[in-house]
Write a sequence for this structure.
């Protein structure tokens, strides 16, 4: 097996001590950095290669922090005027996906 296969095997077992420790440290490190950061190489090279990444000139990798969760309608005190069908405030879905939000 090549090196990428071994790296893939490590990340398959997400509850192992190694992956839990590494992900906890990385999570802390990412929180200390700004929301948009250019990185010189991907965090998981085997996964990036599967998604089409090549280590050549012209490929740029950024790490972007994105707000998670649903969208809340921005209305004052939850009062939406109009018919009951359009009065939802909490369980709304955002139109665009997280990838498009990160790329904007």
């Amino acid at each position: 097996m090549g090196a990428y296969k071994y790296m893939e095997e490590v990340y398959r077992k997400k509850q192992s001590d190694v992956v839990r420790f590494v992900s906890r440290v990385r999570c802390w490190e990412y929180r200390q950095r700004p929301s948009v950061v250019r990185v010189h190489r991907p965090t998981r090279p085997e996964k990036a290669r599967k998604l089409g990444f090549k280590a050549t000139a012209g490929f740029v990798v950024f790490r972007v922090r994105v707000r998670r969760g649903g969208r809340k309608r921005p209305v004052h005190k939850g009062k939406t005027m109009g018919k009951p069908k359009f009065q939802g405030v909490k369980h709304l879905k955002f139109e665009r996906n997280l990838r498009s939000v990160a790329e904007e």
Notes: The radius of gyration is 20 Å. The helical segments are 3-12, 17-32, 45-50, 98-103. Strands lie at 36-39, 61-64. The CA atoms of residues 20 and 80 lie 44 Å apart.
